[in-house]
Design a protein that fits this description.
The complex is a heterotrimer.
Chain A lengths: L1 H23 L3 H21 L3 H25 L15 H23 L13 H10 L2 H22 L3
Helix pairs in contact in A: 1-2, 2-3
Chain B lengths: L2 H21 L3 H26 L3 H31 L13
Chain C lengths: L1 H4 L3 H21 L4 H28 L56 E11 L2 E9 L1 H24 L6 H19 L4 H19 L6 H32 L4 H10 L5 H18 L8 H4 L5 H10 L3 H9 L1 H8 L8 H18 L4 H21 L3 H28 L12 H4 L1 H15 L5 H19 L2 H26 L14 H16 L7 H4 L10 H6 L2 H4 L11 H22 L8 H4 L1 H11 L4 H36 L1 H15 L5 H13 L11 H22 L1
Antiparallel strand pairs in C: 1-2
The chains are: A mainly alpha, B mainly alpha, C mainly alpha.
């Protein structure tokens, strides 16, 4: 238990700090790299929660595919790579107040509601096979819907981004 | 481990994501912040799945990842299109709907 | 009896025809050939309806044991005999046990034994919270009669329209909606439960809306369509509420069950029935053009004339009358005042008949004269139902459908010949040019006026007789209304004939007779206007010929004695005196008008000389100022305070709140306003933004157009609401 708590602390610290740096850094490429750190940290967190397939997918899809997409987006939009452009808008105080309010109320109600509930650690452990059984039986229709959505997104992205 | 430590991490990530969406001027950055918010949701899904001993939490986390991938694809296409038409991806430039 | 059990096929045919015409009409059939589909479908419907009618007569003549409704014991405790499981899946012939024992065998035309309707329940449509909604058909004599009427008129109108709307730009649409209308009406008349009644009711309303606005390029037509639709909506609310009250009272949607329950114990649930009947009466008033919701019907004449004939004269507008007849126990028990047998329905009907007839005098548009005549005749039917003369009302519905359709199609033929005008001042002298139209029009007019031996004479005579002796002679007022209307009807129809067909031609161009496709339906309808009466001749007329067995056929076949016997409705003996009085009134009406126009006798120019007469005429010309009442008085008094109040809220509350909330955003907004003003030139977006600008001047400050500002507001308000919930809950 102690080891898990220590690891959680380390991961959480990395994730939070990276996330904060991501939304405050003035360099967009750095921001992308901080995002990689956040996503990777979350992947590690999923391992900690015994969700191995989600963790794998997190690494493959987010760090592998989505991040590449982001980097392509950064390059194709010829975004200023240094501190040329002010990355944070003039209204950042309002945004900060709003997000602090939102986070504050969420955390307060979480503390209020779950208090000191312990995480169930002796529950069943779901392997990739269990996840796939569930996806291809109970959730087969949402799964099909997701695949259609991906196809639609693919076509939509092509239609939007093509030059003509 | 407490259940709350995961949930509060999720809440914090979500708030940071909200801040990024609201404060950042670069369109790509806004999309990244949205990813942050989606991931915060995923933590909650997985944690509650573990808490209740069901696999559905993980399944829905996977669905969210798939939807996020689709969203990034379309979102970046839109940003590219905006850049091509307006040679800017500063979201503060896009205020044609101003009243 | 196969057809009676599978009656659903009848509305199915035109429904299929609708789909075929609408989706395949232009592409595969050819726009100018779609009428073939419609006419074929309607021909089939007519044949099926005729088969159904024949089988129904067989059922009445030689009832099989399961068709006969068992006579229950005497007294009032029949409710428990009623077969309660209507929701179940049974195929056919659910004979319902009930009703008073009204004294064994009856003589004359009264049908005995009591024949139950053929009820087929096909499946549960849906169920919600334990309440089940069935789909099925209820076929009895009334249904069969309406099937025949709708199928015949619709078929003839389809044929007539091939010529009348030839080369119309929405020919396909026109035929598609004629088919849909026919399907909806047929579905409506065979509804097994009141939910189906509502569905059919709304469907015919929509078709009416579409067809009135068929030529929507012209503003008056769309206005008329909207007016018809909105007026009908007023009644629809009544329909919905009434049906809900009925369900609340009887816990069933089944028409048969409701009727049987009331008929078994007429005194019970009087208050609930009163509420339900009043609400339903509003629906009837809107659909059947009863006072005070009749104002849409004359405007509905903006639609193509065949549509007016089909929908606004012969079929749809009788939907209200049909509903009264179908749910007769509800109306009859609900609206009877106290223990006396005076019935509110009779008064509404009689009054409508009178004002409709009055209005018909002051119109110059031939179709509007006919429209007011329709209002008046529908009032007649409602009055007959109110006095307890069920058969007379349905008989009149039957004959009226034919001769009024004939009159409308005749008017269409006239306008077709005379350069598409309906103004009688531009007609005149068409007698020679259009002999066929003239003759059929005169025949139908005589039938409408009630001249022996045309169809209208018999049905009107029965109504007058019903109001004379109905319910212990308690309707002298209705009799006066009826007699006055009989006189007026004859007079205004003579006026129409004078202005349209006699005298000098006042239009321009050369009028000509309409083609065969139009005159043949006219002659068929005229034939029915002559012969329609034979279906319910009184016994004494037939006795000299030894045909007493054929007397009162409609009464024998159509009257649902199962439901009516508990209400104590009697059938008056035919009276020669009443017939003579009615005939004399009609003849004198014609005579007076004849003398006035042909012989120039009477007070000509009275309206110019006498201020009272002039005021009266203006009053009629303005349709009793009802439209003014609705538009200027009611709408404005309602509209203005609401608008003022909304404006005040907008000015004081919203503006200030928004100003405070968006203080910071406003500064940014101003900055952006200056900065972007030159940069943004995009016409369409600017126009849209300008629209928003003028409507929400006060909201402008937060409409910065920047997604992030909106996001701040969204998340900020979500957070604030969340805090509120956390604190409160």
């Amino acid at each position: 238990m102690v080891a898990q708590n220590i690891f959680f602390g380390i991961i959480a610290a990395i994730v939070i700090v990276s996330a904060l740096r991501m939304v405050t850094t003035r360099n967009i490429v750095h921001a992308a790299l901080y995002l990689v750190a956040v996503l990777g940290g979350l992947g590690a967190l999923y391992i900690l929660l015994t969700a191995e397939f989600v963790a794998t997918t997190q690494v493959l899809v987010y760090i592998g595919a989505v991040m590449v997409l982001f980097l392509f987006g950064i390059m194709l939009t010829k975004a200023p790579l240094g501190n040329v452009m002010e990355m944070t808008g003039a209204q950042w105080p309002i945004a900060a107040v709003v997000s602090v309010l939102l986070g504050g109320v969420t955390i307060c109600s979480l503390m209020d509601h779950f208090g000191s509930d312990r995480l169930v650690t002796d529950g069943p452990i779901f392997r990739t096979a269990d996840v796939s059984d569930e996806v291809f039986s109970t959730y087969i229709i949402p799964f099909e819907a997701i695949s259609v959505l991906l196809l639609a997104a693919l076509i939509g992205a092509i239609v939007l981004a093509r030059k003509d | 481990m407490l259940l709350n430590q995961f949930l509060i991490l999720g809440a914090l990530l979500f708030s940071v994501g909200v801040y990024g969406v609201l404060a950042r001027r670069n369109g790509v950055m806004v999309l990244m912040s949205i990813e942050l918010m989606l991931n915060a949701v995923n933590i909650n899904l997985v944690v509650f799945g573990v808490q209740h001993g069901v696999v559905s939490g993980q399944v829905f986390a996977l669905f969210v990842i798939a939807v996020a991938a689709a969203e990034v694809g379309v979102g970046l296409a839109i940003v590219l299109l905006l850049y091509r038409n307006r040679t800017s991806i500063d979201v503060e430039d896009f205020d044609l709907m101003r009243g | 009896m196969w057809m009676l059990e599978n009656a659903f096929l009848i509305p199915l045919v035109p429904a299929i025809s609708f789909v075929v015409i609408l989706f395949f009409g232009k592409r595969f059939i050819g726009a100018n050939r779609v009428h073939i589909v419609g006419i074929t479908a309607l021909g089939l419907v007519w044949v099926l309806s005729a088969v159904a009618a024949f089988q129904w007569t067989q059922r009445v003549e030689n009832p099989s044991p399961d068709a006969i409704v068992e006579m229950a014991t005497h007294g009032g405790d029949h409710g428990d005999d009623h077969d309660a499981d209507h929701g179940d899946d049974h195929d056919a012939d659910l004979a319902v046990v009930s009703t008073d024992h009204s004294g064994g065998e009856h003589g004359g035309g009264h049908s005995s034994p009591l024949i139950g309707p053929v009820i087929s329940t096909f499946s549960q449509w849906w169920s919600n919270g334990g309440i089940e909604f069935a789909v099925g058909t209820l076929v009895d004599g009334l249904t069969v009669l309406l099937l025949i009427v709708v199928a015949s008129i619709s078929l003839l109108v389809h044929i007539y329209s091939t010529e009348y709307v030839k080369d119309d730009r929405r020919y396909v649409h026109y035929y598609a909606f004629l088919s849909l209308f026919t399907a909806a009406m047929l579905f409506f008349v065979m509804a097994q439960n009141i939910v189906q009644l509502i569905v059919g009711w709304e469907l015919v309303g929509v078709c009416s809306f579409v067809l009135i606005g068929h030529w929507w390029e012209e503003k008056p037509n769309t206005d008329a369509a909207l007016k018809a639709f909105l007026t009908n909506r007023v009644g629809d609310i009544g329909l919905l509420v009434g049906m809900i009250v009925l369900w609340g009272t009887f816990q069933t949607f089944d028409i048969d069950a409701i009727n049987t329950l009331i008929s078994a114990d007429p005194g019970a649930h009087h208050l609930a029935l009163l509420v339900a009947a009043c609400c339903l009466m509003a629906a009837v008033a809107s659909k059947s053009g009863q006072f005070p919701l009749h104002t849409w019907l004359p405007d509905a004449m903006a639609g193509p004339t065949p549509v007016s004939a089909l929908i606004h004269a012969a079929t749809m507008v009788v939907a209200g009358v049909y509903m009264i007849a179908r749910l007769y126990p509800v109306f009859y028990e609900g609206l009877s005042i106290g223990t006396s047998s005076i019935n509110l329905m009779a008064f509404i009907g009689g009054f409508t008949a009178l004002i409709g007839a009055g209005l018909a005098f002051a119109q110059w548009d031939i179709k509007k004269v006919l429209a007011y005549s329709t209002v008046s005749q529908l009032g007649y039917m409602v009055m007959a139902l109110g006095v307890g003369a069920w058969t007379a009302a349905i008989f009149h519905l039957f004959t009226h459908a034919f001769f009024k359709a004939c009159l409308f199609l005749g008017a269409g033929s006239v306008s077709h010949a005379a350069h598409h005008t309906f103004d009688m001042r531009k007609m005149g002298g068409l007698k020679k040019a259009m002999p066929h139209t003239y003759r059929t029009f005169v025949i139908a007019s005589l039938a409408l006026a009630g001249i022996f031996p045309f169809a209208g004479f018999w049905s009107k005579d029965e109504i007058l007789l019903g109001s004379l002796v109905g319910q212990k002679n308690s309707y002298p007022l209705m009799l006066i209304f009826g007699c006055a209307v009989a006189f007026m009807t004859a007079a205004y129809m003579t006026r129409v004939i004078w202005y349209t067909f006699h005298g000098e031609f006042r239009g321009h161009g050369q009028p000509h007779e309409s083609p065969k496709m139009m005159t043949v339906p006219l002659w068929i309808l005229a034939g029915m206007a002559v012969l329609g009466g034979v279906f319910n001749l009184p016994g004494p007329v037939l006795e000299p010929f030894g045909l007493e067995g054929l007397a009162h056929r409609i009464q024998t076949y159509a009257e649902p004695s199962v439901y009516l016997s508990g209400l104590g409705i009697s059938h008056p003996d035919p009276s020669l005196n009443m017939a003579l009085v009615g005939l004399a009134l009609a003849v004198s009406g014609i005579l007076v008008t004849y003398l006035y126009y042909w012989r120039r006798i009477g007070l000509h120019g009275l309206t110019e000389r006498n201020s009272y007469a002039k005021n009266g005429y203006t009053f009629l010309e303005n349709k009793y100022y009802l439209d003014h009442l609705y538009n200027d008085v009611i709408v404005k008094t309602v509209k203005r305070p609401i608008a003022n109040w909304a404006n005040r809220v907008n000015q004081n509350v919203l503006d200030r709140a928004v100003d405070k909330a968006g203080e910071t955003a406003r500064d940014t907004g101003r900055w952006i306003y200056k900065w972007v003003d030159q940069g943004v030139i995009d016409g369409s977006v600017n126009a849209a933004a300008r629209g928003a600008d003028s409507s929400g001047e006060g909201l402008r400050v937060i409409q910065s157009g920047k997604v992030q500002n909106y996001g701040q507001l969204l998340f900020g308000s979500a957070a604030v609401l969340a805090i509120v919930f956390v604190i409160v809950v």
